[in-house]
Design goal:
This protein is 42% helix and 13% strand. With 516 residues, it is α/β, with parallel strands linked by helices. The strands form 3 sheets. Strands 3-2-1-4-5-7-6-10-13 form a 9-stranded mixed sheet, sandwiched between helices. A two-stranded antiparallel ribbon has the order 8-9. Strands 11-12 form a two-stranded antiparallel sheet. The chain has helices spanning 13-23, 30-60, 68-72, 85-90, 97-111, 130-141, 149-171, 182-192, 208-219, 236-248, 261-264, 309-318, 342-351, 420-433, 454-459, 467-470, 482-513; strands at residues 197-201, 227-233, 253-257, 273-278, 320-331, 355-360, 373-379, 386-387, 390-391, 398-403, 409-410, 416-417, 449-453. Residues 1-11 have low confidence and may be disordered. Helix 2 runs antiparallel to helix 7 (149-171). It has 3 domains: 5-171, N6 adenine-specific DNA methyltransferase, N-terminal domain (Ferritin), CATH 1.20.1260; 190-470, Vaccinia Virus protein VP39 (Rossmann fold, 3-Layer(aba) Sandwich); 480-516.
Length: 516
Amino acid sequence: MAQTGNNGGNLGFEAELFKAADKLRGNMEPSDYKHVALGLIFLKYLSDAFEARHAQLLAEDAAAAEDRDEYLADDIFWVPREARWSHLQANARQSSIGTSIDDAMRAIEKDNPSLKGVLPKDYARPALNKVMLGELIDLISGIALNEGNDKSKDVLGRVYEYFLGQFAGAEGKRGGEFYTPRSVVRALVEMLEPYNGRVYDPCCGSGGMFVQSEKFVAEHGGRIGDIAIYGQESNYTTWRLCKMNLAVRGIDSDIQWNNEGSFHKDELRDLKADFILANPPFNISDWGGERLRDDVRWKFGPPPVGNANYAWLQHIFHHLAPRGFAGVVLANGSMSSQQSGEGDIRRAMIETGAVDCMVALPGQLFYSTQIPACLWILAKDRSNGLVKNTRLRDRRGEVLFIDARKMGTLVDRTRRELSDEEIGRIAAAYHAWRGEKEAGGYANVHGFCKSASLDEIRKHGHVLTPGRYVGAAAQANDGEPFEEKMRRLATLWREQQAEADKLDKAIEVNLKKLGF
């Protein structure tokens, strides 16, 4: 979607805004600065939404403009006069601007209980440069200026999301703790198609899975209210980012925070979700598994205490509704590991039909790690299932393997992204395989996808690495006859051997001159 209006005419608006904002941070670390910038963007969103509705109500009935219920009915937060952006912008150059912002945040939390404890309130700290703060307010003031409420929400939501990604990149490994790259999230969303029902993420970070799910529904003509959002997050700071990220998108949600985490304090114990999308931390060794040996969630066997990968898979499967689907990002080792009973758990999951599809991803997709990753697609009922009110085919006794390791393009020195076309190809293969009518017929593609039988998987020792099943990609015919190619390559090899001999002799002469 191209950007229009006062902000520039192209998708690069967010990037230019981030560059300008980043110049202002001076010596501040990105991990600190992100809360400063994102908090102000969120405050701008609240104020824009309020001011737009306030103007409408003033035109209709002046008394209604001061009735908080009028805003609540439209899912708009009440913003007290001293917290409105116009007031902060007018005082942006005052030395007391940090205190004014903190007061604004406290006032908003006081009048909106759902935001209690969410907003940052340390703008008055001495270490925060107040000149930079004023300039940042001026910069953010230009976002969605004079746009309507819906347009402002869309633009500010996109800016917030873009800033999250850029801060994650700047923070590197720490950034990966709160942000899953957009192309990975989009691949999961396009495969699972969360059109309606309950969507859950047990380690939701800053909420990217939810944002992309809502986008998917909107882009395909559905109603945003058709999905209900549930999540858990153990990091309090990240939970606050998530709450703001969803609010700036106007997404209603039930996001629980507790510092014990989803394993030890499952706040949504009775939830059965239609779709679960998750990117748990890879290979966590200190998850406290020794205290949960007999947990009801371990349907396929107790996970090893030294690695939480199979605890996440089973926690997620436990929370699926009778016809639910789950997409989980895990380290590649999860597909083949045999340590501490992991191979036995994987075998049980395969034999009982929990695994629907496996996708091997290209390297360098993540900010936090260079460990290669994969997607586990789980399904509670593979006898048919239901997507978009359409019955799927019976897929018991089969697993789809997709090898996407050759996909993606480098967007900087260290990170790769999947293109929309590549994501579409992965999703289309999965949709055709599971029998969606609009997806057309499925066919194995050598080097890319293979529908493997349970017997074939048994022969491979229940290892789920796609490369074992799809084979090597067919080499393109370059038009050179075989005999000519062999003659050319043989000549080249002999030339290189002759050159190597010359170098060896030259090295020997030099060594003798040096007395060796």
